[in-house]
Amino acid sequence: MCGIFFSLVPKSDPASNIDKDFSARYTVAGLQLEQALKCRGPDCDNAIVVDTKIEDNESHHLTLFSTVLSMRDPLTPQPLQSQDGGILQFNGELYDTVGRLEEYRLDLLGDDTACTNDTALLSQLFGRFGVLETIQSIRGEYAFVYYDVLSRCIWWARDCIGRRSLLVNRSRMDCMALSSLPPANPALRVDWQEVPAGEVYKLDLRTMDITAIPWSYDSCSPLKYPYAPICLDISVSQHSYDTLVTEFSSILLAAVRRRVLAMHHSRSKPDTYAILFSGGIDCTLIAYLTAVCLRDHNAHIDLLNVAFENPRINTGFNTPDRVLGRRSWQELTCLPEIQSCRCDFRFVEINVRYSQVLESKTSVQELMFPKCTVMDFSIALAFYFAARGVGTMFSCPLAAAAGDDAPAAEEEYSTPSRVLMSGLGADELFAGYTRHMTSFARGGYEVLANELALDFKRLHERNLGRDDRVGANWSKEFRYPYLDEEVVDFALRCPLDSKLRVVGGENGVREGKWLLRQFARHVGLRNVAEEKKRAIQFGARSAKMEPGQGKIKGTAKFV
Ligand SMILES: Nc1ncnc2c1ncn2[C@@H]1O[C@H](COP(=O)(O)OP(=O)(O)OP(=O)(O)O)[C@@H](O)[C@H]1O
Ligand SMILES: NC(=O)CC[C@H](N)C(=O)O
């Protein structure tokens, strides 16, 4: 991930309060953010300072500091200044453009000066089409800050789903700061909050007014969601459910392919890819489709599986996800389709000792802010260590098949892949949580639809910002195939009984994520299709680690 820091303060006389406040609250150094932002983007860092002067009146001091984790050739330093003087800070991946922007992009590709790097392309698109039309017509996972020098406006946003982190400090009306990360100092952190994902923001330097432009389903809106509202139909008679499964598999494959192709390897060991792998159905399908994309490549796919030593439970690293992960790895490698691929799967056991938890507690809490509950901490901890990608690597699941405790051929290892695929989003879109079954039992498909709509809408503030901040600390980035705009559009259009299905008559079993399970059965992942996965903090045992914490509530605030 890249790191973004932006601040705006009035240029005032040296005796004023703002100057006293300025260096502590609105500089990278004062907020002690430099090192943390460099962890996100180790390939280059740079600052641009601009003094703006508007019609002899107000003038402002802008600081734009960026760090880059270069994912797409050529390495494109940031902040990126365009010919017209606009300055872009971009954290993310742009996968597609649509409409007339796509025509423009294709023209550029035919040109010698073509931009193959997405940051460079985005900077051109902003200059040519303006921010709103560009945002409406790009597909990808990102957060950005853009200074449009011609209109004297600052623009910032997270993508409409919120897959990347961005925080804002507006504690004073005449100042503003934006950052991928919160400040280290707890006293200063309280001024910061996450930028909501459903809006694009513009600050006009001439008036200092901020306008929020919301994403909407209204066709006249300048920002129309790139996916449909949730479908309230229970079943759709013209849909053959087999066709639906086929459609789902090809849309998900395309989403995985976009994420597999959009990386270059010149800065890491060639051709190693990685999946955050619990062994549950969501990430196992992503692992399977990644292998399908790489079937003709001599590539390794690292399956990263995290497990915690939990003193309260005391069963070592044999956590539910460790057992499930080994089993699903085994099942994947036995598929004839996978055996005929040139790429291979390797299982990476990431064992986290309790002493490591204690050592990293402060860092994880710093990164996850403003999330601050016991549950946030146990999830953030799991993603923090999983993303670090350091563990014992096993290349052959045969011993696992024989029922041994530990598979053979181990090696101490650190994954070189900078991209970590995640299965997050499948539960929210396809009804995977137990509470979805409860909603259904309470009020049928109507109540389920409300619950699903709410789950999807709040992903940005419940999960995505936090996970980006902890995972990116190791110069890695998470990519989310289930949160690809086309997958989301498909999921939201699907009839509700293709998500939660009652199998075996009226009083039969309720099966969540039915579409995913059918797809898994179809490709031969029979055990994976039946698995009931626990949430990461229980599967990896990073929750309730201390004796006496058995009854602690996940919603309790961290102290
Ligand atoms: N123990 C783990 N080790 C590594 N990665 C994990 C682990 N548990 C979960 N993940 C990753 O985080 C994603 C979201 O985790 P979550 O707790 O929501 O599980 P889930 O939605 O049931 O997914 P799955 O069915 O893939 O396990 C997973 O899809 C997977 O990519
Ligand atoms: N990590 C990032 O956000 C990368 C930015 C951009 N996709 C690049 O590769 O240059």
Which regions have little confidence, pLDDT < 50, spanning 5+ residues?
A: none
Largest sheet: 7 strands, mixed
CATH homolog superfamily of the largest domain? HUPs
Number of strands: 21
Kindly report the average pLDDT value.
90
| CA-atom Rg in angstroms | 24 Å
Helix tally?
Answer: 20
Structural class call reads alpha+beta
Q: What is the CA-CA span between the terminal residues?
A: 29 Å
Hetero ligands: adenosine-5'-triphosphate, glutamine
> Approximately how much helix is present in the residues?
25-40%
Query: What is the overall silhouette?
Result: globular
Describe the 3D structure.
The protein has two domains: 3-214, Aminohydrolase, N-terminal nucleophile (Ntn) domain (Glutamine Phosphoribosylpyrophosphate, subunit 1, domain 1, 4-Layer Sandwich), CATH 3.60.20; 241-426 and 461-495 and 515-539, 3-Layer(aba) Sandwich (Rossmann fold). Helix 11 (354-368) packs across helix 12. The strands form four sheets. It has a seven-stranded mixed beta sheet. The longest helix has 24 residues, at 434-457. The relative contact order is 0.13. With 559 residues, the protein is an alpha+beta fold. Helix content is 37%, strand content 22%. The model has no long low-confidence stretch (mean pLDDT 90). The protein starts with a strand and ends in a 20-residue tail after the last helix. It contains 20 helices and 21 strands. The protein is globular and about 75 Å long. The structure holds adenosine-5'-triphosphate and glutamine. Adenosine-5'-triphosphate (ATP) is lined by residues 276-278, 280-283, 304-306, 321, 386, 422-424, 426-427, 432, 533, 535-536, 539-540.
